[in-house]
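Note to self: the last two entries modelled the partners one at a time, which told us nothing about the interface. This time every component goes in together.
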Amino acid sequence: MGLAKRIIPCLDVDAGRVVKGVQFVDIRDAGDPVEIAKRYNDAGADEITFLDITASHQERDTTLHTVEQIASQVFIPLTVGGGVRALEDIRNLLNAGADKVAINSAAVHNPEFVREAAERFGSQCIVVAIDAKKVSAESDTNRWEIFTHGGRKPTGLDAVEWARKMTDYGAGEILLTSMDRDGTKNGFDIALTRAISDAVPVPVIASGGVGNLQHLVDGVQQGGADAVLAASIFHFGEYSVQEAKEFMQSAGVEMRLG
Amino acid sequence: MSEVVAVIDYGMGNLHSAGKALEKVANGQTIIITGDPDQVRAADRVVFPGVGAIRDCIAVLKDTGLDQAIRDVAKAGKPLLGICVGMQAMMARSEENNGVDCLGIFDGQVTFFGEQFSDTGARLKVPHMGWNQVQQGMAHPMWAGIDNHARFYFVHSYCVTGLPDEAVAGRCDYGLSFAAAAVQGNVFAVQFHPEKSADAGLTLLENFLRWKP
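The predicted structure of the combined assembly is written out below.
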Protein backbone atom coordinates (compact mmCIF):
# COMPACT_ATOMS: atom_id res chain seq x y z
CA MET A 1 0.00 0.00 0.00
CA GLY A 2 1.18 3.52 -0.63
CA LEU A 3 0.66 6.54 -2.77
CA ALA A 4 -2.51 6.31 -4.87
CA LYS A 5 -2.72 7.17 -8.54
CA ARG A 6 -4.94 10.16 -9.15
CA ILE A 7 -7.96 10.81 -11.34
CA ILE A 8 -8.31 14.44 -12.36
CA PRO A 9 -11.40 15.71 -14.17
CA CYS A 10 -10.66 18.77 -16.28
CA LEU A 11 -13.01 21.70 -16.81
CA ASP A 12 -12.62 24.11 -19.72
CA VAL A 13 -13.85 27.47 -18.52
CA ASP A 14 -14.54 30.53 -20.66
CA ALA A 15 -15.38 33.78 -18.85
CA GLY A 16 -16.60 31.88 -15.82
CA ARG A 17 -18.69 29.31 -17.69
CA VAL A 18 -17.84 25.69 -18.36
CA VAL A 19 -17.74 25.03 -22.08
CA LYS A 20 -17.76 21.76 -24.01
CA GLY A 21 -20.89 21.08 -21.97
CA VAL A 22 -21.11 18.92 -18.96
CA GLN A 23 -24.05 16.58 -19.01
CA PHE A 24 -24.74 15.35 -15.54
CA VAL A 25 -28.17 14.08 -14.78
CA ASP A 26 -30.11 16.46 -12.53
CA ILE A 27 -27.53 19.21 -12.52
CA ARG A 28 -29.10 22.62 -12.11
CA ASP A 29 -26.64 24.62 -14.16
CA ALA A 30 -24.37 22.67 -16.48
CA GLY A 31 -22.27 25.76 -17.10
CA ASP A 32 -21.49 26.58 -13.49
CA PRO A 33 -17.90 25.57 -12.69
CA VAL A 34 -18.52 25.77 -8.95
CA GLU A 35 -21.40 23.32 -9.04
CA ILE A 36 -19.54 20.98 -11.37
CA ALA A 37 -16.41 21.08 -9.22
CA LYS A 38 -18.54 20.22 -6.19
CA ARG A 39 -20.08 17.29 -8.03
CA TYR A 40 -16.68 15.93 -8.96
CA ASN A 41 -15.48 16.40 -5.42
CA ASP A 42 -18.48 14.46 -4.09
CA ALA A 43 -17.85 11.78 -6.71
CA GLY A 44 -14.35 11.18 -5.36
CA ALA A 45 -12.15 13.11 -7.78
CA ASP A 46 -8.60 13.35 -6.42
CA GLU A 47 -7.98 16.82 -7.82
CA ILE A 48 -9.64 19.21 -10.22
CA THR A 49 -7.99 20.98 -13.11
CA PHE A 50 -9.54 24.13 -14.40
CA LEU A 51 -8.39 25.28 -17.79
CA ASP A 52 -9.14 28.93 -18.41
CA ILE A 53 -9.72 29.50 -22.11
CA THR A 54 -10.97 33.05 -21.68
CA ALA A 55 -9.66 35.02 -24.61
CA SER A 56 -10.01 38.55 -23.33
CA HIS A 57 -7.80 39.90 -20.63
CA GLN A 58 -10.59 41.93 -19.05
CA GLU A 59 -12.49 38.82 -18.13
CA ARG A 60 -9.60 37.40 -16.12
CA ASP A 61 -11.16 38.81 -12.98
CA THR A 62 -14.10 36.51 -13.58
CA THR A 63 -11.67 33.61 -13.52
CA LEU A 64 -10.21 34.69 -10.21
CA HIS A 65 -13.68 35.04 -8.76
CA THR A 66 -14.58 31.54 -9.97
CA VAL A 67 -11.40 30.08 -8.49
CA GLU A 68 -12.22 31.79 -5.20
CA GLN A 69 -15.69 30.29 -5.15
CA ILE A 70 -14.48 26.81 -5.98
CA ALA A 71 -11.73 26.98 -3.38
CA SER A 72 -14.14 27.99 -0.65
CA GLN A 73 -16.39 25.01 -1.30
CA VAL A 74 -14.20 22.23 -2.64
CA PHE A 75 -11.52 20.87 -0.35
CA ILE A 76 -9.34 18.93 -2.77
CA PRO A 77 -6.41 20.33 -4.79
CA LEU A 78 -7.22 22.70 -7.60
CA THR A 79 -4.90 23.36 -10.54
CA VAL A 80 -5.58 26.34 -12.79
CA GLY A 81 -4.05 26.71 -16.23
CA GLY A 82 -4.49 28.92 -19.28
CA GLY A 83 -3.02 32.34 -19.88
CA VAL A 84 -0.46 32.18 -17.08
CA ARG A 85 2.25 34.53 -18.35
CA ALA A 86 3.64 36.50 -15.42
CA LEU A 87 4.53 36.03 -11.76
CA GLU A 88 1.63 38.36 -11.03
CA ASP A 89 -0.80 35.91 -12.70
CA ILE A 90 0.50 33.11 -10.50
CA ARG A 91 0.28 35.16 -7.33
CA ASN A 92 -3.30 36.19 -8.15
CA LEU A 93 -4.36 32.60 -8.81
CA LEU A 94 -2.71 31.26 -5.65
CA ASN A 95 -4.25 34.06 -3.60
CA ALA A 96 -7.63 33.23 -5.08
CA GLY A 97 -7.24 29.67 -3.83
CA ALA A 98 -5.54 27.69 -6.60
CA ASP A 99 -3.07 25.14 -5.25
CA LYS A 100 -1.10 24.76 -8.45
CA VAL A 101 -0.85 26.71 -11.67
CA ALA A 102 -0.12 25.21 -15.06
CA ILE A 103 2.23 27.13 -17.37
CA ASN A 104 2.07 26.25 -21.04
CA SER A 105 3.08 28.52 -23.92
CA ALA A 106 4.72 31.12 -21.66
CA ALA A 107 7.27 28.44 -20.76
CA VAL A 108 8.05 27.90 -24.45
CA HIS A 109 8.45 31.63 -25.07
CA ASN A 110 10.51 32.20 -21.96
CA PRO A 111 11.81 29.12 -20.11
CA GLU A 112 13.33 31.34 -17.41
CA PHE A 113 9.79 32.19 -16.35
CA VAL A 114 9.43 28.65 -15.01
CA ARG A 115 12.63 28.98 -13.02
CA GLU A 116 11.54 32.31 -11.53
CA ALA A 117 8.09 30.96 -10.74
CA ALA A 118 9.48 27.87 -8.98
CA GLU A 119 11.94 29.95 -6.98
CA ARG A 120 9.30 32.43 -5.97
CA PHE A 121 6.38 30.13 -5.20
CA GLY A 122 7.96 26.69 -4.82
CA SER A 123 8.09 23.77 -7.24
CA GLN A 124 5.10 22.16 -5.56
CA CYS A 125 2.72 24.62 -7.19
CA ILE A 126 4.32 24.91 -10.62
CA VAL A 127 2.97 22.52 -13.24
CA VAL A 128 4.35 22.74 -16.77
CA ALA A 129 1.81 21.75 -19.40
CA ILE A 130 3.31 20.15 -22.48
CA ASP A 131 1.43 19.70 -25.74
CA ALA A 132 3.33 17.15 -27.80
CA LYS A 133 2.84 15.67 -31.24
CA LYS A 134 4.63 12.79 -32.90
CA VAL A 135 6.89 13.99 -35.71
CA SER A 136 8.79 10.79 -36.56
CA ALA A 137 7.74 8.43 -39.33
CA GLU A 138 6.20 5.11 -38.26
CA SER A 139 9.35 3.20 -39.20
CA ASP A 140 11.69 5.56 -37.33
CA THR A 141 12.53 5.86 -33.66
CA ASN A 142 9.77 7.75 -31.85
CA ARG A 143 10.22 11.49 -31.66
CA TRP A 144 7.74 14.04 -30.35
CA GLU A 145 7.84 17.79 -30.64
CA ILE A 146 6.31 20.56 -28.56
CA PHE A 147 3.47 22.37 -30.32
CA THR A 148 1.73 25.58 -29.30
CA HIS A 149 -1.51 27.26 -30.38
CA GLY A 150 -3.64 24.22 -29.78
CA GLY A 151 -1.31 21.92 -31.67
CA ARG A 152 -1.04 24.04 -34.80
CA LYS A 153 2.38 25.60 -34.33
CA PRO A 154 5.54 23.47 -34.15
CA THR A 155 8.39 24.78 -32.01
CA GLY A 156 11.20 22.41 -32.98
CA LEU A 157 11.62 21.45 -29.32
CA ASP A 158 12.02 17.76 -28.58
CA ALA A 159 9.33 16.80 -26.07
CA VAL A 160 11.48 14.52 -23.91
CA GLU A 161 14.35 17.01 -23.71
CA TRP A 162 11.90 19.81 -23.03
CA ALA A 163 10.25 17.94 -20.16
CA ARG A 164 13.65 17.26 -18.63
CA LYS A 165 14.63 20.90 -19.00
CA MET A 166 11.42 22.10 -17.39
CA THR A 167 11.94 19.88 -14.34
CA ASP A 168 15.56 21.08 -14.13
CA TYR A 169 14.11 24.58 -14.05
CA GLY A 170 11.87 23.67 -11.14
CA ALA A 171 8.58 22.33 -12.51
CA GLY A 172 7.07 20.12 -9.80
CA GLU A 173 4.77 18.22 -12.13
CA ILE A 174 4.27 17.71 -15.87
CA LEU A 175 0.83 17.79 -17.48
CA LEU A 176 1.40 15.92 -20.71
CA THR A 177 -1.12 16.13 -23.53
CA SER A 178 -0.80 14.19 -26.75
CA MET A 179 -2.13 16.46 -29.48
CA ASP A 180 -2.41 13.42 -31.76
CA ARG A 181 -4.79 11.71 -29.35
CA ASP A 182 -6.65 14.66 -27.85
CA GLY A 183 -10.34 14.29 -28.66
CA THR A 184 -9.92 10.93 -30.44
CA LYS A 185 -11.06 8.59 -27.63
CA ASN A 186 -8.39 6.16 -28.83
CA GLY A 187 -6.46 6.19 -25.56
CA PHE A 188 -3.33 7.96 -24.37
CA ASP A 189 -0.17 7.96 -26.48
CA ILE A 190 1.43 5.31 -24.29
CA ALA A 191 4.91 5.50 -25.82
CA LEU A 192 4.99 9.26 -25.30
CA THR A 193 3.75 8.97 -21.72
CA ARG A 194 6.35 6.30 -20.94
CA ALA A 195 9.16 8.28 -22.55
CA ILE A 196 8.39 11.43 -20.54
CA SER A 197 7.66 9.61 -17.30
CA ASP A 198 10.97 7.75 -17.47
CA ALA A 199 12.83 10.96 -18.31
CA VAL A 200 11.72 13.17 -15.42
CA PRO A 201 11.96 12.82 -11.62
CA VAL A 202 8.59 14.52 -10.96
CA PRO A 203 5.02 13.20 -11.31
CA VAL A 204 3.47 13.09 -14.79
CA ILE A 205 -0.23 13.56 -15.54
CA ALA A 206 -1.31 11.83 -18.76
CA SER A 207 -3.88 13.62 -20.88
CA GLY A 208 -5.47 13.37 -24.30
CA GLY A 209 -7.46 10.54 -25.82
CA VAL A 210 -9.31 8.80 -23.01
CA GLY A 211 -12.30 6.92 -24.39
CA ASN A 212 -12.82 4.16 -21.85
CA LEU A 213 -11.70 3.01 -18.43
CA GLN A 214 -9.07 0.59 -19.69
CA HIS A 215 -7.31 3.58 -21.23
CA LEU A 216 -6.88 5.03 -17.73
CA VAL A 217 -5.35 1.78 -16.51
CA ASP A 218 -3.02 1.64 -19.52
CA GLY A 219 -1.84 5.20 -18.93
CA VAL A 220 -0.69 4.22 -15.46
CA GLN A 221 0.48 0.63 -15.97
CA GLN A 222 2.04 0.95 -19.41
CA GLY A 223 2.66 4.67 -19.64
CA GLY A 224 3.96 5.06 -16.09
CA ALA A 225 1.72 8.07 -15.40
CA ASP A 226 1.16 9.15 -11.80
CA ALA A 227 -2.21 10.69 -12.58
CA VAL A 228 -4.72 10.62 -15.41
CA LEU A 229 -6.70 13.58 -16.64
CA ALA A 230 -9.94 13.25 -18.53
CA ALA A 231 -12.77 15.51 -19.54
CA SER A 232 -15.42 14.14 -21.83
CA ILE A 233 -15.82 10.60 -20.45
CA PHE A 234 -16.79 12.16 -17.13
CA HIS A 235 -18.60 15.26 -18.37
CA PHE A 236 -21.02 13.32 -20.51
CA GLY A 237 -21.76 10.84 -17.78
CA GLU A 238 -20.40 7.83 -19.69
CA TYR A 239 -18.56 6.86 -16.53
CA SER A 240 -18.52 8.27 -13.03
CA VAL A 241 -15.25 9.03 -11.28
CA GLN A 242 -16.16 6.38 -8.72
CA GLU A 243 -16.67 3.73 -11.43
CA ALA A 244 -13.33 4.68 -12.96
CA LYS A 245 -11.58 4.34 -9.61
CA GLU A 246 -13.13 0.97 -8.88
CA PHE A 247 -12.21 -0.27 -12.34
CA MET A 248 -8.61 0.86 -11.93
CA GLN A 249 -8.35 -0.62 -8.44
CA SER A 250 -9.64 -3.98 -9.67
CA ALA A 251 -7.05 -3.85 -12.45
CA GLY A 252 -4.36 -3.58 -9.78
CA VAL A 253 -3.86 0.19 -9.63
CA GLU A 254 -3.79 1.61 -6.12
CA MET A 255 -6.56 4.22 -5.77
CA ARG A 256 -8.19 6.30 -3.08
CA LEU A 257 -11.64 4.83 -2.61
CA GLY A 258 -14.38 6.36 -0.45
CA MET B 1 -17.12 35.73 23.54
CA SER B 2 -16.35 33.31 20.80
CA GLU B 3 -12.97 31.67 20.52
CA VAL B 4 -10.52 33.23 18.09
CA VAL B 5 -8.52 30.95 15.80
CA ALA B 6 -5.54 32.67 14.19
CA VAL B 7 -4.17 31.41 10.88
CA ILE B 8 -0.63 32.73 10.61
CA ASP B 9 0.01 34.77 7.47
CA TYR B 10 3.66 35.29 6.72
CA GLY B 11 3.05 36.38 3.17
CA MET B 12 3.99 33.20 1.36
CA GLY B 13 1.35 30.55 1.60
CA ASN B 14 -1.99 29.89 0.08
CA LEU B 15 -3.88 30.81 3.23
CA HIS B 16 -7.19 31.01 1.52
CA SER B 17 -7.47 27.23 1.58
CA ALA B 18 -6.66 26.73 5.25
CA GLY B 19 -8.88 29.65 6.27
CA LYS B 20 -11.82 28.51 4.17
CA ALA B 21 -11.58 24.93 5.36
CA LEU B 22 -11.54 26.10 8.99
CA GLU B 23 -14.53 28.34 8.34
CA LYS B 24 -16.34 25.37 6.86
CA VAL B 25 -15.94 23.31 10.05
CA ALA B 26 -16.03 26.14 12.60
CA ASN B 27 -18.69 25.91 15.26
CA GLY B 28 -18.91 29.42 16.60
CA GLN B 29 -15.19 30.17 16.43
CA THR B 30 -13.94 33.27 14.66
CA ILE B 31 -11.22 32.54 12.11
CA ILE B 32 -8.74 35.36 11.53
CA ILE B 33 -5.80 35.42 9.13
CA THR B 34 -3.02 37.52 10.58
CA GLY B 35 0.66 38.33 10.39
CA ASP B 36 0.65 40.28 13.66
CA PRO B 37 2.60 38.46 16.39
CA ASP B 38 0.44 40.01 19.12
CA GLN B 39 -2.76 38.78 17.50
CA VAL B 40 -1.20 35.35 17.22
CA ARG B 41 -0.30 35.38 20.93
CA ALA B 42 -3.77 36.59 21.87
CA ALA B 43 -5.62 33.92 19.89
CA ASP B 44 -7.17 30.90 21.59
CA ARG B 45 -5.91 28.51 18.90
CA VAL B 46 -3.30 28.94 16.21
CA VAL B 47 -2.81 27.33 12.80
CA PHE B 48 0.57 27.66 11.14
CA PRO B 49 0.28 26.64 7.47
CA GLY B 50 3.06 26.81 4.97
CA VAL B 51 4.24 26.28 1.46
CA GLY B 52 7.43 27.28 -0.31
CA ALA B 53 11.06 27.10 0.66
CA ILE B 54 12.08 26.76 4.30
CA ARG B 55 14.86 29.36 4.14
CA ASP B 56 12.43 32.09 3.08
CA CYS B 57 9.84 30.90 5.58
CA ILE B 58 12.22 31.06 8.56
CA ALA B 59 13.66 34.39 7.39
CA VAL B 60 10.22 36.00 7.24
CA LEU B 61 9.22 34.53 10.62
CA LYS B 62 12.34 36.03 12.21
CA ASP B 63 11.92 39.42 10.52
CA THR B 64 8.35 39.74 11.68
CA GLY B 65 8.81 38.35 15.18
CA LEU B 66 6.36 35.58 14.36
CA ASP B 67 9.02 33.01 15.27
CA GLN B 68 8.84 34.07 18.92
CA ALA B 69 5.06 34.34 18.81
CA ILE B 70 4.82 30.73 17.64
CA ARG B 71 7.18 29.55 20.38
CA ASP B 72 5.14 31.54 22.91
CA VAL B 73 1.91 29.90 21.77
CA ALA B 74 3.58 26.49 22.07
CA LYS B 75 4.75 27.31 25.60
CA ALA B 76 1.41 28.82 26.63
CA GLY B 77 -0.29 25.45 26.18
CA LYS B 78 -2.74 26.67 23.54
CA PRO B 79 -3.64 24.30 20.70
CA LEU B 80 -1.20 24.88 17.84
CA LEU B 81 -1.42 23.12 14.47
CA GLY B 82 1.44 23.14 11.95
CA ILE B 83 0.71 22.21 8.34
CA CYS B 84 3.26 21.06 5.73
CA VAL B 85 6.14 23.56 5.76
CA GLY B 86 4.62 24.79 9.02
CA MET B 87 5.36 21.35 10.48
CA GLN B 88 8.86 21.34 9.02
CA ALA B 89 9.55 24.82 10.43
CA MET B 90 8.75 23.49 13.92
CA MET B 91 11.65 21.03 13.76
CA ALA B 92 15.21 21.65 14.94
CA ARG B 93 16.79 21.84 11.53
CA SER B 94 16.14 21.34 7.82
CA GLU B 95 18.66 20.28 5.23
CA GLU B 96 16.78 22.24 2.54
CA ASN B 97 18.56 25.31 1.09
CA ASN B 98 21.96 24.02 2.30
CA GLY B 99 20.78 23.75 5.88
CA VAL B 100 18.48 26.02 7.86
CA ASP B 101 17.98 26.21 11.64
CA CYS B 102 14.27 26.05 12.39
CA LEU B 103 12.09 26.85 15.41
CA GLY B 104 13.18 23.86 17.45
CA ILE B 105 9.79 23.12 19.00
CA PHE B 106 10.28 19.45 18.06
CA ASP B 107 13.55 17.57 18.18
CA GLY B 108 13.28 16.33 14.59
CA GLN B 109 15.13 16.82 11.34
CA VAL B 110 13.85 17.71 7.89
CA THR B 111 15.54 15.67 5.18
CA PHE B 112 15.27 15.32 1.40
CA PHE B 113 13.53 12.23 0.06
CA GLY B 114 16.51 11.51 -2.13
CA GLU B 115 16.38 8.58 -4.52
CA GLN B 116 13.80 6.24 -3.11
CA PHE B 117 12.51 3.12 -4.80
CA SER B 118 9.22 1.28 -4.62
CA ASP B 119 8.84 -2.40 -3.71
CA THR B 120 8.96 -3.19 -7.41
CA GLY B 121 12.22 -1.30 -7.89
CA ALA B 122 10.75 1.71 -9.69
CA ARG B 123 12.27 5.09 -8.85
CA LEU B 124 9.79 7.12 -6.83
CA LYS B 125 8.83 10.56 -8.06
CA VAL B 126 9.67 13.62 -5.97
CA PRO B 127 7.75 15.69 -4.91
CA HIS B 128 5.74 13.05 -3.07
CA MET B 129 2.46 14.29 -4.49
CA GLY B 130 -0.99 12.83 -4.00
CA TRP B 131 -3.08 10.78 -1.60
CA ASN B 132 -1.15 8.51 0.72
CA GLN B 133 -2.12 6.54 3.79
CA VAL B 134 -1.40 7.65 7.32
CA GLN B 135 -0.84 4.99 9.91
CA GLN B 136 -1.88 6.44 13.24
CA GLY B 137 0.81 5.99 15.85
CA MET B 138 -1.48 6.46 18.83
CA ALA B 139 -5.06 7.13 19.84
CA HIS B 140 -5.41 10.90 19.93
CA PRO B 141 -8.33 13.37 19.92
CA MET B 142 -7.00 14.75 16.61
CA TRP B 143 -7.65 11.36 14.99
CA ALA B 144 -11.24 11.09 16.27
CA GLY B 145 -13.57 9.83 13.56
CA ILE B 146 -10.71 9.22 11.11
CA ASP B 147 -9.92 5.67 10.02
CA ASN B 148 -6.45 4.36 10.66
CA HIS B 149 -4.72 4.29 7.24
CA ALA B 150 -7.05 6.98 5.88
CA ARG B 151 -5.62 8.82 2.89
CA PHE B 152 -4.54 12.46 3.02
CA TYR B 153 -3.17 14.75 0.32
CA PHE B 154 0.59 15.29 0.42
CA VAL B 155 2.85 17.51 -1.63
CA HIS B 156 6.45 17.83 -0.43
CA SER B 157 10.04 17.01 -1.32
CA TYR B 158 11.41 17.06 2.23
CA CYS B 159 10.15 15.05 5.18
CA VAL B 160 10.50 14.85 8.94
CA THR B 161 12.62 12.07 10.42
CA GLY B 162 14.44 11.44 13.67
CA LEU B 163 11.59 12.30 16.02
CA PRO B 164 11.36 10.25 19.21
CA ASP B 165 8.68 7.55 18.86
CA GLU B 166 6.36 9.18 21.38
CA ALA B 167 6.24 12.32 19.21
CA VAL B 168 5.22 10.48 16.04
CA ALA B 169 1.43 10.71 15.88
CA GLY B 170 1.28 9.18 12.41
CA ARG B 171 3.55 7.60 9.85
CA CYS B 172 3.55 7.47 6.09
CA ASP B 173 5.62 5.32 3.75
CA TYR B 174 7.11 6.59 0.53
CA GLY B 175 10.27 4.66 -0.06
CA LEU B 176 11.12 5.46 3.53
CA SER B 177 8.97 5.83 6.63
CA PHE B 178 8.55 9.43 7.74
CA ALA B 179 6.49 11.36 10.28
CA ALA B 180 3.18 12.33 8.67
CA ALA B 181 2.05 13.79 11.99
CA ALA B 182 3.90 14.90 15.11
CA VAL B 183 2.58 15.66 18.56
CA GLN B 184 3.99 17.17 21.71
CA GLY B 185 1.52 18.28 24.37
CA ASN B 186 -0.52 21.10 22.86
CA VAL B 187 1.30 21.11 19.52
CA PHE B 188 0.16 18.92 16.62
CA ALA B 189 1.74 19.09 13.20
CA VAL B 190 0.94 17.36 9.92
CA GLN B 191 2.96 16.99 6.75
CA PHE B 192 -0.14 16.55 4.61
CA HIS B 193 -2.68 19.25 3.75
CA PRO B 194 -5.85 18.67 5.79
CA GLU B 195 -7.44 21.64 4.00
CA LYS B 196 -7.06 19.72 0.72
CA SER B 197 -7.81 16.22 2.01
CA ALA B 198 -11.58 16.14 1.54
CA ASP B 199 -13.59 14.62 4.39
CA ALA B 200 -10.67 13.13 6.34
CA GLY B 201 -8.93 16.50 6.33
CA LEU B 202 -12.01 18.45 7.35
CA THR B 203 -12.58 16.02 10.21
CA LEU B 204 -9.02 16.60 11.43
CA LEU B 205 -9.53 20.37 11.34
CA GLU B 206 -12.82 20.01 13.17
CA ASN B 207 -11.03 17.91 15.79
CA PHE B 208 -8.42 20.65 16.13
CA LEU B 209 -11.10 23.25 16.85
CA ARG B 210 -12.44 21.02 19.65
CA TRP B 211 -9.12 19.82 20.99
CA LYS B 212 -8.46 20.52 24.67
CA PRO B 213 -4.85 19.50 25.26
